[in-house]
Each structure stands twice: as structure tokens, then as C-alpha cells.
Specification:
By secondary structure, the protein is an alpha+beta fold. It folds into 2 domains: about 5-130, no CATH class; about 135-295, no CATH class. The protein contains 8 helices and 11 strands. The protein has helices spanning about 5-25, 35-45, 65-90, 135-150, 170-180, 215-225, 255-260, 280-295; strands at about 45, 50-55, 95-100, 105, 110-115, 125-130, 190, 195-200, 205-210, 230-235, 275. The strands form 4 sheets. It has a 4-stranded antiparallel β-sheet with strand order 1-2-6-3. A 3-stranded parallel β-sheet has the order 7-10-11.
Length: about 300
């Protein structure tokens, strides 16, 4: 990361706060100053390399009104788009992108926002990120270090990082094929909690599939197939009733799994979930601890 990129990122949280304050204080929101201050303290995430606006804290003040939330999503997107335009004007045109979570996959202009409806409040996180800083690249970074630990050799080079990696799925998979020894490939377990699948409003016969974890989970699945390493894809339902969004319905899992996972995956989804945890992180944590106990050497 260049100093110019870092300086730009470090300037954004304060600017996001000012812009969101102006948005919430004016029509059509017109929130009280005390409410706005409390919202801003929770909504502006001053992450050094991924400054974020998380609008979850706005929902109560907006009375869960999907129309008003949709307007706030549009306004928040505009705030980040303005920052992206400014970056381009400063000579940083190829440095950043906007990540929406959850999203509806890639469109011609980047990730698609999942707009709020009465049944699903959609995108809540608007993140301004360095290009290349995506989870699927992280899979190869971790594997590169793993190979070094067991062989003393970095297949992708000691300095391999996210900025050097290709950005599309097929190229990442080919990079792994070209450099990783199949005999040393471990079994990889990918765990995610953000996947989406819904009909395309413009083309109802097709589906829009996305979610922040889809890319890296798809790569984990593809690596398992390419290296015959029996990888696994796990989905943890983190909705917990806190947000209006699709959730796993455990009552239907056995009889109608696709309806049980409606809005998350579908029968034709190329990403196959091997295990789902409708009980959220608590269920997954209990499973993980139980598995660790069973694998621990006797007496430990």
C-alpha cells in the first residue's frame, strides 16, 4: 500500500461522519440531533484500511421502514461513490473499490447493492476497501504460508500478498494449480455467514447470487475439487432474529431444504453447502469444540 493510499483511507472516517450526519439531519429523515449522534458513534467504523458505514444502528430510528431504509442505502452509497470519485481525481483510480454486505454478486459496475424490502433489509455495510483485499485472495495467502511451514518453501514467493494476486476466481484457481504441490494440499474448511440468492427482478428465470463470503467459499470448494482434498463449506446463520433478512429454517431442513434456505442458496447454486448451522455461532462453536476434543490425543 502506498502512503498516498493510506493517507486517503485515514481521512475517510471523519468525512463519512460529516456526510452521514448531514444526511440523517435533513429530509426525508429529519432525525433529532441526539439520535444522530448516537447513530454516528455506532455507524462509522474507523477501520484503518477499510473505513465503513454500517447502517444497522439506523433501523430503530427509521422504525424499520423499508422505504426509508432504501433511501438511506442510496444516500450511503452516494457518500462512498463520492469518495471513490475523489480518489480518482487524486490519481488513485485503480486503488479502491466499494464492498457491500450483503450483496447480490457482481454487476457491470461492481457489486450489486441488495436494496431493502419489507421482507429483507438488505445491504447494511458499505465498505471502502483496497482493491485486492478480498477473502478469496486471503485463502491463497494462508496456503502459501502453510506450505512454507511444512516444506520450508513459499510456492508463491515469500512476499506474496493480496495486491499481487489476480482478482478473478479462475485465475486464482489456476495460480494454485500451477504452484501448490497436490501431495501437500491440506483439507480446507471454509466457514461463512453471508450468502444471498434471489430471482433477478429484470429476468425472473435467472438468479442473482452474492454475499460477502460467496467468493472465498467458492474458491475453497474449487480447490477441494482440483486437488481432491475433500474440502468443506460451512454456513453459519448469524441472523439471530436481529435483522430482517433470510435465515435458515431448521423445521424445513429435512423435508424441503431449498425452501429452508430460501434467500441464501438454491437448488441450482454452484456453491454447495456441506453443513449449515441454523443455531448461529453458538451452535458452530459447540460443534468446533466437540470436534477438537475428539481429535485431541488421548490424555490431553
Amino acid at each position: 500500500m502506498s502512503q498516498a493510499e493510506l493517507d486517503f483511507l485515514l481521512s475517510l472516517a471523519a468525512r463519512f461522519r460529516t456526510a452521514l450526519q448531514a444526511t440523517l439531519s435533513s429530509a426525508p429523515f429529519d432525525l433529532a440531533a441526539s439520535d444522530v449522534t448516537a447513530i454516528l458513534d455506532a455507524a462509522i467504523l474507523d477501520n484503518p484500511v477499510s473505513p465503513t458505514i454500517n447502517i444497522n444502528s439506523c433501523f430503530s430510528a427509521l422504525q424499520q421502514d423499508s422505504d426509508r431504509i432504501r433511501r438511506l442505502q442510496e444516500a450511503t452509497q452516494s457518500i462512498l461513490m463520492a469518495a471513490l470519485t475523489e480518489a480518482e481525481q487524486q490519481g488513485l483510480a485503480d486503488s479502491f473499490f466499494i464492498h457491500y454486505a450483503p450483496n447480490l454478486g457482481q454487476g457491470p459496475d461492481g457489486e450489486r447493492v441488495k436494496w431493502a424490502t419489507s421482507a429483507d433489509l438488505g445491504t447494511t455495510d458499505f465498505q471502502f476497501m483496497l482493491k485486492g483485499a478480498v477473502k478469496e485472495v486471503g485463502v491463497l495467502v494462508i496456503l502459501n504460508r502453510f506450505y512454507h511451514r511444512i516444506s520450508g518453501h513459499y510456492p508463491l514467493g515469500a512476499d506474496f500478498n493480496a495486491r499481487q494476486a489476480p482478482r478473478d476466481h479462475s485465475a486464482l484457481l489456476q495460480l494454485a494449480r500451477d504452484h501448490f504441490d497436490p501431495a501437500l494440499m491440506p483439507r480446507v474448511v471454509g466457514v461463512g455467514d453471508t450468502l444471498t440468492s434471489q430471482p433477478d427482478p429484470q429476468h425472473p428465470a435467472t438468479r442473482l447470487r452474492g454475499g460477502s463470503d460467496r467468493g472465498f467459499l467458492s474458491l475453497v470448494q474449487a480447490l477441494g475439487e482440483a486437488f481432491q482434498s475433500d474440502n468443506a463449506v460451512l454456513f453459519v446463520d448469524s441472523s439471530g432474529g436481529e435483522l430482517t433478512r433470510p435465515a435458515i429454517d431448521p423445521r424445513r431442513l429435512a423435508s424441503d431444504p431449498w425452501q429452508a434456505a430460501a434467500g441464501i442458496t438454491d437448488a441450482d447454486d454452484p456453491l454447495h453447502l456441506n453443513f449449515v448451522f441454523p443455531g448461529g455461532y453458538q451452535q458452530y462453536t459447540a460443534f468446533f469444540c466437540s470436534l477438537a476434543d475428539k481429535r485431541a490425543p488421548s490424555g490431553e
